[in-house]
Every structure is written in structure tokens, then in C-alpha cells.
Design a protein that fits this description.
elongated; mainly alpha; 0% strand; 107 residues
């Protein structure tokens, strides 16, 4: 429960940053461009780190299913691991779309 509140608070902090910060600091375009470039760098690092992590998770799930030897629990665990990693990676790839939409709405 604590982690869910933590992620929700981070989401709203980022939303606040992208919506209200550029409007309140319009007199300082250098600050805004610095923040935008910082968020783009963070986004590129997240995508660079999540791509191999998702590949490893999918590979582990496939191997877990392959070498389960008929154990139903390991098959279900492997399927859950594959599905969860693909959904997470898809969400990370959607971050680029979300940030570009917010950026186009603001500027």
C-alpha cells in the first residue's frame, strides 16, 4: 500500500512539473529548456535500462515455462512473468507519447 501511494505521489509531482512550472516561470525560458532537456535525458536512460531488463524477464519466463517439466505452478509463474514484463515495457514506451502530448499542449 505504501508503494502505491509513493508512485501516485511521484506521478502527480511530475504532472505538476509539466503543467504548472512552465506557466509560472515564463520569464525564464532557459530554465524551462533546461528542465525539458533533463526530463528527456531521464526518459532516454529509463528506456535504455528497461529494454535489456524486459528482454531478460521475458527470456526468464520462457525458460521457466520450457523447463517446468509439467509443474503447473511454474508454468503460471512463467506466464505471469512474461505478461508483466511486456505490460511494464509497453507502459515505459508510452511515457514518450505522454510527455510529447503534454509538451505539445503547453508549448
Amino acid at each position: 500500500m505504501k508503494f502505491k501511494k509513493f508512485y501516485i505521489s511521484i506521478f502527480f509531482c511530475l504532472l505538476f512539473t509539466f503543467i504548472f512550472l512552465p506557466k509560472s516561470f515564463c520569464a525564464y525560458p532557459k530554465l524551462i529548456s533546461t528542465l525539458n532537456s533533463a526530463f528527456e535525458k531521464i526518459e532516454s536512460w529509463i528506456i535504455a535500462l528497461s529494454t535489456p531488463a524486459a528482454a531478460i524477464a521475458v527470456g526468464t519466463g520462457v525458460l521457466m515455462k520450457k523447463f517446468s517439466f509439467g509443474d503447473e505452478e511454474r508454468i503460471r509463474t512463467g506466464k505471469r512473468l512474461i505478461r508483466g514484463s511486456l505490460f511494464s515495457y509497453g507502459f515505459i514506451l508510452c511515457i514518450d507519447l505522454i510527455l510529447s502530448t503534454i509538451n505539445s499542449l503547453l508549448g
